[in-house]
Write a structure and sequence with these properties.
Four copies of one chain form a homotetramer.
Chain A (H helix, E strand, L loop, with lengths): L1 E5 L4 H11 L5 E7 L4 E2 H4 L10 E4 L2 H7 L2 E4 L5 H11 L3 E4 L8 H7 L6 H4 L3 E2 L2 H9 L3 E3 L3 H10 L12 E7 L14 H4 L4 E2 L7 H13 L5 E7 L6 E8 L6 H9 L5 E3 L15 E8 L2 E8 L7 H11 L16
Parallel strand pairs in A: 1-2, 1-5, 2-4, 5-6, 6-8, 7-8, 9-11, 13-14
Antiparallel strand pairs in A: 3-4, 9-12, 10-11, 12-15, 14-15
Helix pairs in contact in A: 1-12, 7-12, 8-10
Chain lengths: ~325, ~325, ~325, ~325
């Protein structure tokens, strides 16, 4: 199937290109960014001798001529404009931005007014382990945020077993690629190297995304107390989930039962690390308890399972292909 | 006053040398490690043209001849042997190991049998903001662990305001120097670079140290659920404290009141980072809340406030000098 | 074709596994290290859900039963023992150690007495761009060292154009994975992070390897003045070649002519960086001059083009497959 | 003596503040940047509880009222405007920019038209080991560039012993702080981490600075072939000097003789590293040879010996104080 990548300049756009180049079913027929008029090798010099294609100025009409599905690796607000146009032209959309992840009400509370109130209603949240049946029938996938992916996969199996009146705390740690490619004071090497700090504690926009999905899947209104940190590493994300158990249960058994058929979730008997998942679609999980105190540690590659490889898994399911065709499994270790 | 440094080979030994070289009151009269027969410049080549002294094979009798106070930067179990001998010779001791930090009972439960049951009873826990009066009269200071220092300074002001039946969670993040100078799989560059992982979750030996000091100071038996992580940075430590508030209180006011006279504790209105404290004795604190959920973030230099500079503060107080004479304040930024 | 990997514990062993898992022609039928009795997932936890095979105690007889070709990722001296046995059993060998890279005389001068004087004579040096015809007919490939690979590919095209009486200087910069997986003072994170230094200046054993190959290919006895440096990065190698040009020539044209048909050598019009080649078999080259002064900059992934992927290219050629079947091209950027 | 720091926002401005806070003779009486109206703690949060001063909008008239000497940590072109005004007001100037480092002719060839043709003639190049007598009498010091400092200290002692018709090659490696505080694609963490590359090979503006100073001091017109690299570390600079010796000389003896009375130059018998000098004014040197091939390795802290601490040494000499009063000697190891 011919596919388009809109928003090829950023990190997730590059990761999409890298996955799709070798994908057995998808063929990249169109690449676009906001300027066009260059070769993809000018945009990403590491692709020299790997792929040789023009980068176009993004145009939905042109996409519809050459592709049946489009991946949108665009900033929020820009994504909804293209998604709306593409859907009207019968192009399926996997959107990596935040634009279709939330209910309209929650979106407008935390982001801005929404410009595509029609399609947001039908968008499917692309967390494959929990929404596979919906994804099969979808025309528009809202690819989850990186923090929600790592958090939900760790937390959802335990929702029925924890005291929901007690606060749930999430201490999340992200590599710098999560902050995007644009240079800023925050991403300056001298600011990041040998440093670590929290940012937006209890105020990050991924917090309502996590809360809303728990409500949809588990019927419970929980307050997620989410504190992200920026770490001196390029890619990878490690999330600590802390909660209070109601009873003295076997926490490993719960996790095993939840994910026994999930090839891309690996339960570990030692604390997980990001290097074992960097470069892959895996989510590695570790769980332990101390009396009623629960700790789940969740590791993903923020650009892959937290964005681009999960997007391709969603596209695989949506198109009726094997779920894990062409999905990266080989980590960047050492 | 003449002072000795026993255990000069490791990172905390080096930091002691670096602080004491320029100290207006202390004079290094003796340096020892476990081999001797070298110059301190052979041990630490960065000290060439800075200090020129012999390193001796550690010997308590020799120490007593030339020094009134000794800093012990030794592994636990070794430290207690020297401390016992030195105290018998009327040399005051600031011990950076774990050997005198706990009650005898707690020590023997979490470490091993104690070889100096006499002195452990009289040892004073050297957290200056909380034990200054005891430190003034002490002969033996147990210098706190790095994790307990960062955690207690963040948590203690809030003990009276939190639900103590609910779990308190500590998500701690340490630079690699905290693991010591000996090479191991854990500290190999390729294992640490671009990586992050928890270790000993809910099982670290700094957990009972934190619990015991809270009980002594606040009379409450709390379960501290402590999860340390190893981060790709050389020095620095960031600790997240998560707890449940009982009431809708002004969390900044509480922190301000607790530390308004403490020159080396800085309250910040933005999340703290380790780079602003690396190279100094400062503990930087940030606090916020989300309903009843409390988050305190605490940053220290693990080798200084978490070890060597705090040891010198303790020695200053014990010797009746100005508390902060010769204590490093200038951070390693950028 | 069934292949064996002997020496699966180290970094190059792991890279061989990672390449061969997805190779369209080679099938891994045997994996061994020096202890055996484990699963490859115990050795390399990142391979969980990727490959499930026993790791054997290395045994040449067993290899010969199940494989037609063996990759040896062993220390020098150990490699020659296995190579000798395997060749006697008609198993072809690609040896990643130094044991067969040099003439017997040069080897014994710089390393130690050689235990396989028979086979060293027939070993083919596996630098594909220069020895392809010999590789096709070989039974034993000596896979080049990482420094010689990056240096020779940069220097060889210019040998005819430089003053050979003037010193040639090589300033090489390697990531830490080149020092291997065993922990040491040298590879401790705190020693490497924020640091850089030369080691073995003018004394590294890759120096005679470079000199000997130039003599074989170009008939000239040159003194290569080689200074390697250790850098704070995990993988990647950047080599500066400095020499004196005889005439005012077009240095880019020379490089273009030398490698115009070489898919895995990329000539760049901006200075090359290691990130664009990390994860791939590419060698990126940049050249410029200042009067008679020549500068060539060469970037490779030390574990791939400098070891494991070049080994698989050699195996491809030796077995009559397409030279670049299954060879990694997608870099680890960002 | 009261001193002013003009240009307090950048890295070298911060380092000046950090040195001068504890200087026994200099007193910071004025701090300025291009916006003013803030406290120095707002500009550099790490200075909280360390120094409490207003930052002013830079104004030469105000400086002249409160200070006898000014350090200019400004971009080139801006620096000359202030220097001219301050000198007219009888304020002595130590300028850290490039504006007064070169002869007028060389400056205008490599930078731009010069706006202070009067004072550039009398500026003294502040490399203390070579220009001490001139510095004593100067009113305007041109503080050397970081690359020229590390290169000249390594190369000057050998000028009389090398073949000057053969190219001299400099392979320099700098930490990212050398690129300044402003965020850019070049200094983005994801671009620097795990990466290394050359930039401006044979074209850097520090090349003519090195050449001109050799001509002044040694009377020889040499072509310096200079290739800088950007490394994944915050501070520190390592420079390789490669040249051809005329005779079989004792290279260590030459270096020893050149610097036997220089407290801040340390000759090493092992290759130097940047970590041993980071945080200090030291220049560490190592030399070896291979036949006629010479290799000198030179390590400095680019922000201190390459900028701010050398500026304070110059100020000490100029003011008749002890050369090394208040100059940092304690390295940031580990």
């Amino acid at each position: 199937m011919n596919v388009a990548i809109i928003g090829a300049s950023g990190y997730t756009g590059l990761e999409l290109i890298k996955i799709l180049i070798n994908h057995p079913k998808f063929n990249i027929s169109y690449i676009a960014n906001s300027s066009g008029e260059m070769n993809v090798q000018d945009l990403h010099p590491s692709l020299k001798n790997v792929i040789n294609m023009d980068v176009n100025l993004a145009n939905a009409q042109e996409v519809a001529k050459v592709a049946d599905l489009a991946f949108l690796a665009l900033p929020h607000k820009t994504a909804m404009v293209f998604a709306k146009e593409l859907l009207a032209l019968n192009v399926k959309v996997v959107d990596l931005s935040a634009d279709y992840r939330l209910s309209l009400e929650t979106y407008e509370k935390h982001y801005c007014e929404h410009g595509d109130k029609e399609n947001i209603k039908d968008a499917v949240y692309g967390l494959p382990e929990y929404f596979k049946e919906d994804i099969k029938k979808a025309k528009l996938i809202a690819n989850p945020g990186c923090y929600p992916t790592a958090t939900l996969l760790a937390l959802l199996p335990f929702i029925d077993y924890i005291e929901t009146e007690n606060p749930i705390f999430i201490d999340a740690k992200s590599g710098v690629s999560g902050a995007g490619k644009n240079p800023s004071d925050t991403t300056h090497y001298c600011q990041i190297n040998d440093n670590v700090h929290a940012y937006n504690p209890f105020k990050h926009r991924h917090m309502p995304e996590i809360e809303e999905k728990i409500k949809i899947l588990k019927g419970k209104e929980l307050a997620i107390n989410f504190v992200p940190h920026l770490l001196p590493l390029t890619r990878g994300m490690l999330v600590s989930v802390f909660a209070t158990l109601k009873d003295d249960i076997d926490v490993n058994e719960i996790l095993n039962n939840a994910y026994k058929d999930c090839e891309f979730i690996r339960l570990r008997d030692k604390p997980v690390d990001v290097k074992s998942v960097a470069g892959t679609n895996f989510c590695d999980l570790f769980v332990t308890k101390n009396g009623k105190a629960l700790f789940v540690s969740s590791a993903i590659d923020n650009l892959l399972r937290g964005a681009s490889s999960q997007a391709v898994v969603n596209a695989n399911i949506l198109c009726g292909y094997e779920e894990y065709e062409g999905i990266p499994k080989i980590a960047y270790v050492p």
